[in-house]
Design a protein that fits this description.
This protein is an alpha+beta fold. The protein is 30% helix and 19% strand. It is globular, with a radius of gyration of 24 Å. The protein starts with a strand and ends with a strand.
């Protein structure tokens, strides 16, 4: 299996040795543009490279620009988070197939026709669930104070001033899940740390300011690049189901709570609740630690990341995954294997 390494180069001048290394390495190719374009870049511009290697990892820190760190059999650092997932309510996610016997078919894998929970959907759900876990801790800290019952006042104040919005914990999620356009790391619950919402009309403005400060923090910590991108350690595989069923929603009059006249019931193709769960796997690959040469921290980080992932699964199991979670769909029970 090949793994992709995404890096952005801020320097436009390269030595001849580096240039020949670019040309001779057939596993290396530009994400956009040709190899020679790198010499025509203007000052301040960036060139994106995509690396595919199986037996060596490049250290791309600006301080050690072209230092190559060969690692024999680095696949031993890869960990698998295996789990079983059993639905306790109907699961539905919309298919892109417009030609079907009912208006709302479930998404299926094309070769097999099996209903599928896409790895990208599971990733998005777990990432938001992990953020919710942090937000809940923020509320507990400000209202219940149970976290600080054994700490003295000076220690509490020092921690409050150091990390009021839990930037450090959220940055671990960025390393874990990666950062991409549209990722939401803060919700209205974050405003609890500001003392509450005094002007509802400025809600989005305040959240945008907090998000901008967090992005600046991530750049300062060298977790994301200048474009705000960071590849996560997790690789999500799709989860497949073996059964389908029909569920029906009857449109109701909001006032009378009776079926609307002239409106037919709406049918959905769903995966029904299950007695036995299906198996899934998430790949954990700490490429950032390998590239920095910090392989001694891998086991410790793996244990911490497993705990984060477990809490996120617990939260997502309560909220549900897929569409119509507000109606109670997509809930499940899970177990790590």
């Amino acid at each position: 299996m090949k793994y992709d390494f995404l890096a952005f180069f801020k320097k436009e001048r390269f030595s001849k040795e580096s240039y020949h290394r670019f040309c001779d390495d057939h596993n290396l190719y530009f994400w956009h543009g040709k190899r020679d374009v790198i010499f025509n870049k203007k000052a301040g511009k960036e060139t994106a490279l995509l690396f595919k290697h199986c037996d060596e990892v490049y250290n791309l820190c600006l301080e050690d620009f072209w230092k190559v760190k060969p690692i024999s059999n680095f696949k031993r650092f890869i960990k698998l988070f295996s789990f079983s997932l059993a639905l306790t309510s109907s699961f539905f996610t919309a298919s892109e197939n417009k030609f079907y016997s009912i208006p709302n078919p479930i998404a299926k894998e094309r070769p097999t026709g099996l209903p599928v929970l896409k790895g990208s959907s599971l990733k998005g759900g777990l990432r938001q669930a992990a953020v919710d876990v942090i937000e809940d801790e923020l509320i507990e800290k400000n209202f219940l104070f149970s976290k600080y019952k054994d700490k003295d006042e000076d220690e509490i104040l020092e921690q409050e001033e150091k990390d009021k919005f839990y930037f450090e914990k959220r940055s671990n999620l960025v390393r874990f899940f990666g950062n991409e356009k549209g990722a939401v790391w803060f919700t209205y619950k974050s405003l609890i740390a500001t003392g509450g919402i005094r002007d509802v009309t400025k809600l989005n403005e305040i959240l945008n300011n907090i998000t901008s400060a967090f992005e600046h923090y991530l750049k300062k910590q060298k977790i994301i690049n200048s474009e705000g991108i960071c590849r996560g350690r997790l690789i999500f595989q799709d989860v497949y189901f073996a059964q389908v069923a029909l569920d029906v929603i009857t449109p109701l009059d909001r006032r009378k709570r009776t079926p609307l006249k002239g409106r037919a019931p709406i049918f959905y193709e769903v995966v029904p609740p299950q007695k036995e769960g299906v198996e899934g796997t998430i790949i954990w690959f700490p490429f950032d630690l390998i590239a920095k040469g910090e392989t001694g921290k891998i086991e410790e980080e793996w244990e911490k990341n497993k705990e984060i992932l477990g809490k996120a699964f617990d939260k997502l199991a309560q909220k549900g995954v897929g569409a119509k979670t507000a109606e109670g769909w997509g809930k499940f029970r899970w177990k790590a294997k």
